[in-house]
């Protein structure tokens, strides 16, 4: 990295992290995950270490929290509320111990004790008591100035209003949090009343504490753990552990998992022990905090600009957590696939409360991959197991591992169903298919409902006012059994005693809006229509490929009807489309050949006006209407760019060479396709020749 690049990157990181701090600390609406935030801070620190003279005045390494929000009075902390340095690896913990010993002049064999305690994932709060009475409560803010939330803090049951036998001045610091059970109950109440639902307990706690109306805070189930102190007129004790015990005798809840450790080995053992208990604690933690136990040594070690030298937070992997597998449910999708879903004891992973995870298929549960090889060391997954869950970004949570040491006695391997749990039809697994599928087809209610949900999804018909919930409701009532029924809804339920406007949750206006939205979508683009059919292996991109290739519904329908799997000109034309393989082509042809599915499609088409795919103006194009194949390595453009340019000029790009191919563009490394083209006498151009042909040289 050059100095110019470093300067630009530090500016970018400073802006990103400042925005993230405001979103997290001020707005209680995080925009990025904790893992991404930590990654950005680490990158900033590494660049500053390499180019120390480029460190910005507003460097994220000098920031704690964020400025206070409008609406709250400001409180200046008499003792700054600092953040903690982070450890992510075992080596970081041993390096922390080594650095302290070096600073204090201690050898590796000298005794040095630490406390280890769970790091509560909540909102920092400082409580100031004078003469035993709570006089002020403040959030951390930017570490120097926080928000005055005294009235709100007085509504929290874990916070005493009066202390007995306390120092004349005592600032107690800790974390406001919300238990998992209370969080779930709050979200249920919020959902029932149409209020905001929270992503995780930390957001719920922050949003509840920082209310301008204290009665809202009073109605929220907030808790408080004390673990530190700020300004104090007389020492609480001579050690960290004894001081925490003193806070407990004063009436504060302190964490019972706080223990004394003699060196890094015991610290790491406690870390692993707390991580194993994480899902059973009933509240969120995101790591373990280590602190020098001797308060005199803490005083000698002192502080850096934003963190104490005598403490560090050993963070759990942000995307991993251990929890209990409480059950396995089987869901049936629109293609009949039986998908196993893990029901988990709720645990927060990557900033989201996770209670479900995908188990993929029966092989995955059994500890095998699709080829029969071992995964997870061959360990199967059973109900009651202690499992490791991972979630990366927006990816659906998955189970990564199983702790066999914690497997309950008398458990049995999971017996994957051989019958559809929805309709009782045989569930078969065809050779080469990783998934077992229900054979019930249209008689299976689960498949029908999922197909309808897909039909109204955003990339398909996207009918305003007709989402998954309404589809389930109408299907359960027998109003909609297949897509065509949506377009006769007004005729059947727009008048008379059973009209839609008389149903719970509906009225004259909402019913009229729905009917109008349905009518609006009678005119639909070809690509959206093909995608909406929910044909197996045919996704959104493939649907648009097919639409662009065939142009109109009539052309597409005629070709699919005439095609036979594995033979004939229609089949060859279909699989020649770049991006369409034999699996997708077989699914398409088979669907149109099935009597019941084809009849359902025909009933739908009768209600629609289908827009042909937009065709570019290719007048004068030297390749309009020609079938072009690209092979080998293109050096002046990507394959995707070449394909897009050819299609814009009216060419059809194919993935295979046949007698119908007009032109092959062969780059270095072209193999069998170029040879076949030569054998068939098809014109072959190199990349420069292609660019010259289309006037882009």
Descriptive overview:
The longest helix has 24 residues, at 3-26. The model has no long low-confidence stretch (mean pLDDT 87). The protein starts with a helix and ends with a helix. It folds into 6 domains: 3-61, Helix Hairpins (Orthogonal Bundle), CATH 1.10.287.610; 85-315, DNA ligase/mRNA capping enzyme (D-amino Acid Aminotransferase, Chain A, domain 1, 2-Layer Sandwich), CATH 3.30.470.30; 320-428, Beta Barrel (OB fold (Dihydrolipoamide Acetyltransferase, E2P)); 440-521, 5' to 3' exonuclease, C-terminal subdomain (DNA polymerase, domain 1), CATH 1.10.150.20; 526-611, DNA polymerase, domain 1 (Orthogonal Bundle), CATH 1.10.150; 627-693, BRCT domain (Rossmann fold, 3-Layer(aba) Sandwich). It is 36% helix and 20% strand. Helix 1 (3-26) runs antiparallel to helix 2 (34-50) and helix 17 (526-532) crosses helix 18. The protein is an alpha+beta fold.
Q: What would the principal axes of the Cα set say about the shape?
A: globular
- The span between the termini is 35 Å
CATH topology (fold) name of the largest domain: D-amino Acid Aminotransferase, Chain A, domain 1
Largest sheet: 5 strands, mixed
> Given this structure, which CATH class of the largest domain is correct?
Alpha Beta
Strand content: 15-25%
Any chance you could write out the topology, listing elements then pairs?
Layout: H1 3-26, H2 34-50, E1 74-76, E2 85-87, H3 90-104, E3 113-120, E4 123-130, E5 133-139, E6 145-147, H4 150-153, E7 169-177, H5 180-193, H6 201-209, H7 214-218, E8 223-232, H8 240-249, E9 259-262, H9 264-277, E10 285-292, H10 295-301, E11 311-315, E12 320-332, E13 338-349, E14 352-358, H11 362-366, E15 386-390, E16 398-403, E17 427-428, E18 437-438, H12 445-455, H13 468-476, H14 483-486, H15 489-493, H16 508-520, E19 523-525, H17 526-532, H18 540-550, H19 553-562, H20 569-575, H21 582-593, H22 595-605, E20 609-611, E21 627-631, H23 639-648, E22 652-654, E23 663-666, H24 672-680, E24 683-685, H25 687-693
Parallel strand pairs: 2-11, 19-20, 21-22, 21-23, 23-24
Antiparallel strand pairs: 1-6, 3-9, 3-10, 4-5, 4-7, 7-8, 10-11, 12-13, 12-15, 13-14, 15-16, 17-18
Helix pairs in contact: 1-2, 12-13, 17-18
């Amino acid at each position: 990295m050059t100095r110019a690049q470093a300067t630009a990157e530090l500016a970018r990181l400073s802006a990103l992290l400042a925005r993230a701090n405001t979103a997290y600390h001020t707005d209680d609406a995080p925009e990025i995950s904790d893992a991404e935030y930590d990654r950005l801070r680490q990158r900033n620190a590494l660049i500053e270490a390499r180019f120390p003279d480029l460190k910005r005045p507003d460097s994220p390494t000098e920031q704690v929290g964020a400025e206070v929000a409008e609406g709250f009075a400001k409180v200046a902390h008499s003792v700054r509320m600092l953040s903690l340095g982070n450890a992510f690896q075992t080596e970081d913990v041993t390096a922390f111990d080594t650095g302290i010993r070096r600073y204090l002049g201690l050898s590796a064999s000298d005794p040095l004790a630490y406390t280890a305690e769970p790091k509560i994932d909540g909102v920092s709060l400082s409580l100031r008591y004078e003469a035993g009475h709570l006089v002020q409560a403040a959030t951390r803010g930017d570490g120097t100035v926080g928000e005055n939330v005294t009235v709100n803090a007085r509504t929290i049951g874990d916070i005493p209003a009066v202390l007995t036998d306390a120092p004349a001045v005592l600032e107690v610091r800790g974390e406001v949090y919300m238990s998992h059970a209370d969080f779930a109950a709050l979200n249920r109440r919020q959902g029932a009343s149409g209020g905001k639902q929270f992503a995780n307990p930390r957001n719920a706690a922050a949003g509840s504490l920082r209310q301008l109306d204290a009665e809202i805070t009073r109605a929220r189930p907030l808790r408080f753990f004390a673990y530190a102190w700020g300004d104090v007129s007389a020492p609480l004790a001579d050690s960290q552990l004894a001081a925490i015990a003193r806070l407990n005798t004063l009436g504060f809840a302190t964490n019972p998992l706080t223990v004394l450790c003699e060196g890094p080995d015991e610290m790491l053992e406690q870390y692993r022990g707390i991580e194993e208990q994480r899902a059973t604690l009933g509240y969120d933690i995101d790591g373990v905090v280590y602190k020098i136990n001797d308060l005199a040594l803490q005083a000698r070690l002192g502080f850096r600009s934003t963190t104490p030298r005598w403490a560090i937070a050993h963070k759990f992997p942000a995307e991993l957590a251990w929890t209990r597998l409480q059950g396995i449910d089987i869901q049936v999708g629109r293609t009949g696939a039986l998908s196993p879903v893990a029901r988990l004891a709720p645990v927060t992973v990557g900033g989201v409360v996770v209670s479900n995870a995908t188990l993929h298929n029966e092989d995955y549960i059994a500890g095998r991959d699709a080829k029969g090889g071992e995964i997870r060391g061959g360990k199967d997954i059973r109900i009651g197991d202690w499992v490791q869950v991972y979630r990366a970004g927006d990816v659906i949570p998955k189970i990564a591992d199983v702790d066999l040491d914690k497997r309950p006695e008398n458990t049995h391997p999971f017996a994957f169903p051989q019958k559809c749990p929805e309709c009782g039809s045989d569930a078969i697994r065809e050779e080469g298919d990783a998934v077992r599928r229900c054979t019930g087809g249209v008689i299976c209610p689960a498949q029908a409902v999922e197909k309808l949900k897909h039909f109204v999804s955003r990339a398909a018909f996207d009918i305003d006012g007709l989402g998954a919930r309404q589809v389930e409701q109408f299907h359960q009532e027998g109003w909609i059994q297949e897509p065509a029924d949506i377009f006769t809804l007004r005729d059947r339920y727009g008048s008379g005693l059973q009209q839609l406007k008389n149903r719970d949750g509906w009225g004259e206006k909402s019913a009229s809006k729905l009917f109008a939205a349905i009518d609006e979508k009678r005119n639909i683009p070809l690509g959206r229509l093909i995608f909406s059919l929910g044909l197996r292996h045919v996704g959104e991109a493939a649907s648009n490929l097919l639409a662009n290739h065939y142009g109109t519904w009539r052309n597409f329908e005629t070709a699919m009807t005439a095609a036979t799997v594995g033979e004939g000109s229609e089949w060859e034309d279909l699989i020649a489309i770049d991006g369409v393989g034999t699996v997708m082509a077989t699914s398409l042809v088979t669907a149109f050949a099935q009597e019941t599915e084809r009849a359902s499609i025909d009933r739908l088409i009768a209600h629609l006006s289908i827009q042909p795919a937009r065709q570019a103006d290719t007048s004068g194009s030297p390749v309009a209407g020609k079938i072009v194949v690209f092979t080998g390595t293109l050096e002046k453009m990507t394959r995707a760019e070449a394909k897009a340019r050819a299609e814009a000029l009216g060419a059809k790009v194919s993935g295979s060479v046949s007698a119908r191919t007009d032109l092959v563009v062969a780059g270095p490394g072209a193999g069998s396709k170029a040879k076949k083209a030569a054998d068939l006498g098809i014109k072959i151009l190199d990349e420069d020749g292609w660019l010259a042909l289309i006037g882009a040289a």
